[in-house]
Design brief:
Elements (H helix, E strand, L loop, with lengths): L6 H4 L8 E5 L6 H7 L5 H7 L34 H12 L3 E4 L11 H20 L5 E6 L5 H11 L5 E7 L12 H9 L4 E4 L17 H21 L2 H4 L5 E4 L6 H10 L1
Parallel strand pairs: 1-2, 2-3, 3-4, 4-5, 5-6
Helix pairs in contact: 2-5, 6-7
Length: 270
């Protein structure tokens, strides 16, 4: 197709802003985390901070959560731990104008509410100090202890006024369906600060990924994750979250979308 716009008409055109809405960073080492984590929790973190199923859902030859083989920083450390390498490999290489940082795996690995609150605060302070402040193209997400609504709301209120934080980050697998009242303080705080809630693939709820029990293989786990997204959408709609919080915006991240039209049809039909 040949454009009919003249050179004069296109001379003032502005290139669209290119946004990567889902980049994943992590700590280069436990020592980096401890720079931001309250000393009260250092021993506890060493003993219990690794609770969960880290790595068990991924292929044996992908120990870093399915990361690309060329994503290991040349100076060492896990993928997503080097700002210079991320600049080179992503931001500069692809001309990214803005990137939203979604650190995963730090907010639902434990059931100690005060430790999780401290861990989330440390993660959020680390994002700002080591990613967003030295690289303005990277914007931060407010990681919250999602299953403890009051503590999560407190963290949103602490950071919500800072424009460098552009969303609240949760994982799709939670202890209960997201329409339940335990999560309402999160929605109220997000709405109060005009922040969308990004709900990402993954999480560690302690419950099976499917409605029929635990899967055996990575491909079952990965394919079945869409069931969690569907269950959460059903809960949010039927339990009236969007009526209670009309200004709330939610973003489902990495969960697919082909399931949405038939799900909407079934919900309407019932």
């Amino acid at each position: 197709m040949v454009s009919t716009l003249s050179r004069a008409e296109t001379a003032g055109a502005v290139r669209p802003t290119l946004v990567d809405g889902d980049i994943h960073t992590t700590f280069a080492s436990p020592a980096v985390l401890k720079k931001y984590l309250s000393p009260r929790w250092h021993d506890y973190h060493d003993q219990y901070g690794g609770w969960g199923y880290h790595g068990s859902n991924y292929p044996k030859d992908a120990p870093y959560g399915g990361s690309r083989g060329d994503s290991l920083p040349p100076e060492g450390g896990p993928p997503g731990s080097s700002l210079p390498f991320l600049r080179e490999q992503l931001l500069d290489e692809w001309g990214i104008d803005l990137a939203i940082n979604n650190p995963l795996g730090h907010s639902q690995k434990n059931r100690h509410p005060e430790y999780l609150a401290a861990l989330c605060s440390a993660t959020n302070d680390w994002q700002l100090a080591e990613w967003t402040e030295p690289e303005p193209r990277i914007k931060a997400s407010i990681v919250v202890p999602a299953d403890y609504g009051d503590l999560a709301a407190r963290e949103i209120d602490r950071l919500g006024p800072n424009p460098n934080y552009v969303q609240v980050l949760m994982s799709i697998r939670t202890a209960e369906p997201l329409g339940r009242p335990r999560y309402w303080p999160i929605y109220e705080a997000a709405e109060r600060h005009g922040l969308p809630i990004g709900i990402h693939f993954g999480g560690h709820s302690g419950h099976p990924i499917t409605g029929a029990g635990w899967p055996s293989y990575y491909y079952e786990y990965h394919s079945g994750m869409s069931q969690s997204f569907q269950s959460q959408v059903i809960s949010l709609v039927y339990e009236g979250v969007f009526e209670r919080f009309p200004g709330l915006k939610m973003v489902m991240i990495e969960g697919g979308f082909a399931w949405l039209p038939p799900l909407a049809w079934r919900m309407d039909s019932h």
